[in-house]
Amino acid sequence: MKTFVIRFIRDEQGQDLVEYALIVAAVGLALITTVNQLSAGIVSLYQSITGDLASIGTPAT
Question: How many CB atoms lie within 10 A of CB 18?
Answer without folding.
Answer: 9
